[in-house]
Specification:
Length: 194
């Protein structure tokens, strides 16, 4: 075999090796992109929802506290502060409800599309919805008791709302932790595959 034939055979072998390596790299990259895409499509929206609901929930708790303090002052401004605070609280509750409806629709469509984890995420959204509704109802009772001037009933209602607030915080933490763990698992899988 001539030197030229040996060089051409070596070049051909290197070219085949280069094509094989590139093909494997493209396949690994595609799997990593798919895993990261799943994270952004399924986990990031739930993380964003949990974060936003937590922020609005904290605003609601502050509003309830502000209403209680306004009632303690019992001046001419206290009624206006109470009404404004309740209006803002209800606006926040509506905002959370709208976000939860969007998240429920998102999780249901993912479940219908065959996402195996979608049912778990849907259950998390439904738990947030249930516990938030309980909190909002307790807070409304507290607002009503504050508005009626019944200090004793107001303190009891605020205490019940506080318990519901803690329960909502725990549920939000669980859902946030589950979603973060799922995102972390998927990104670990993507890193391992790349």
């Amino acid at each position: 075999m001539s030197v030229r034939a040996k060089v051409l055979a070596l070049l051909l072998g290197l070219l085949v090796f280069l094509v094989a390596t590139a093909s494997v790299s493209i396949g690994v990259r595609a799997r990593a992109e798919e895993a990261l895409s799943r994270v952004t499509q399924r986990d990031v929206p739930l993380l964003a929802l949990s974060t936003r609901v937590t922020a609005v929930h904290l605003e609601q708790a502050l509003r309830l506290e502000r209403a209680l303090r306004a009632a303690e002052r019992d001046g001419p401004d206290s009624r206006a502060v109470l009404l404004e605070t309740r209006r803002a609280f209800e606006s926040d509750a509506a905002s959370i409800w709208n976000r939860l409806q969007d998240a429920t629709a998102f999780a249901e469509s993912a479940a219908e599309a065959g996402d195996p984890d979608a049912r778990h995420r849907l259950e998390g959204v439904m738990r947030i919805d249930q516990v938030h509704n309980e909190y909002a109802e307790q807070a409304r009772e507290a607002f009503d008791a504050i508005a009626s001037g019944d200090r004793r009933a107001a303190l009891v209602a605020v205490e019940q709302a506080e318990e519901a607030k803690v329960a909502l915080g725990l549920v939000l933490g669980e859902v946030l932790e589950d979603s973060a763990r799922s995102a972390d698992d998927a990104s670990s899988l993507a890193r391992r595959d790349s």
